[in-house]
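The pair is listed for reference:
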Amino acid sequence: MIPRRRTFRVLVVAVLAWVGVSSGWPGPRMRVWERGVEQQLLLLRGPRRPPPKVVLVTVDDATLQQGDWFEEEGKIPEWAKGVGSLPWPRATYGMVAEKLLQAGARAVAVNVVFEGPSGKGPADDDALELRLRRYPGRVALAAEMLESSDTQGAGALTFVRPERFLAAIGGTGSLGLTNILAGTSSEPSRHPEAYASGVLPARGAEGHSALSSTLLRLGGQRSRQDDRASALNFYGPEGSFQRLPAWEVLDPARWLTHPLRKDVKGALVLLGPVVAQGTDGYPTPFGTLSGLEVLATATANSLQGDGLQPWPRSAPGRALLALLPLLLVLGAARRWTDLRWRLALVALVLVLQGGVVVVALQQANRWLPLLAPSSGLVLLGLLYGGDAYLREGQERRRLRRTFERYVAPGVVAEILSDPESAQGILRGRLLEVTVLMTDIKGFTVLTKQRSGEGQSELHVLQLNEYLGAMVEVVMAHGGTVDKFIGDAVMAVFGSPVSRGVAEEASQAVRCALAMRAALAGLNEDWARRGIATLDNGIGLASGQVMVGQIGSPKRMEFTVIGDTVNLSARLESATRNVDAAVVCDAHTASLIAADPGLAARSLGPQAVKSLGEVEIFTVALADQASRQGHASR
């Protein structure tokens, strides 16, 4: 018991330690699994409605095709020149931004890095600069940090920004980095600000704002979350945000009466290409997204404060939170020791934990530890099951050792098929049984004689041969050897399990007759070996007895007690005064009356010690009784 309990405690402590470490300080493999679970929950949650005040104006395939159509027609309006292919003229971006600001947009961010002079000539740059100067502090331009490494593995950072237009937009405060920390199999996509003002300063570079953060600031808004500590909480697949094809904004006639023009008023607008991404997009739970859609997600997350964040933020806090459901189960399991209750408790806490994680994700955008504590609960359930299995096996072995000393193996198997019933048998109950008591006649005198002759070893050997044969007969007839009292044997039929009161009485009588036959065989063998023969008497009584384990805590014995036991002992003694080796009481005789193979004959009332006059019967097999009757006639 002690080694098993100690092993169980060690395993529980190991599970707790694993859950705490895996939740607070997860390894690479655990991070991959945890990330997979998070993505599945986000997919299960499904797309969300993004804020209407974040709008995309896209240089998409439809816009490029519209430009191509004008070129094929040969009549190209001024606004459509160069829009059929990328890169676009810079002046065209300026034209779109101006139209959006005139429609009431709070601010516009252009997700294109205007590095160096325009490939379409100085006039292109001049036209863009002219328009930007009209709206200082209203247009955010993109910058980019390029990372490179040489053959020696040394890294370098190059800051690429639109130098020509810094003065026109009001200085570097209107710049924003477009770098994005894309998600991996083990890490979620981080808010761009995590790179711009987190990763860069950590690498010794000057910190900058992300383009989404700059757009928010120019639009007079502020982030409602800690962007550097947040992961992107995507709203759905590509196209989740309100978007306008850029050509519809450029076309004066279409834009004047456009039904979505009113949505631009008061909105934060992101302008940039979103043509087919192929493998160049950013992986998300909802599929690959364009850079413009990702920046829109970052802007919306900051605006609403609904970016994903782990909770608690600290590693020790996450470890303690992950351990909480396991400690709850362990505490409750100390009172509920039944395996079914323990497993039900584990299942209940698993469901509750999953529900809390889902609610926290949907309502508070917080990611609570799930995989490690859930795995820990499952392991805890397996430990409880294994412990119960070992404990049941240990208890079955204890019960088997207890009962095998008294009853046949087949009866033991029947008892152990219901361990709870077996425990009830041991605790005590009233049963209707037949008690058999047998004793060797004159054995006390023989013991003294052999002791004086120095034949103690022979005496013990003969007694053991006799008792062994008697026990075999009792077992063969389904009886229980209750105890040995010196040379006497007490057997019970109907305990611990009964085949029926009449059947047990019949088997007890048949056992008594078989014991006499077995003794006859022993006597023949002893006579051949020159050993004194033995004789015995057998008394049987049927009635109610109390059955159970009786004794002290240090020594317990499974036995029966009651008047029926005393009567069987007195009847055995009576065999010395009557001409019969096997006798029984009237109740036993009545019980075997229905057995055609047995016959009972009354010997009349006999004086029985402590009980007065009692009618006793002798028994025999029916065919023997018939032969004896014919012989007497």
In short: The longest strand covers residues 536-552.
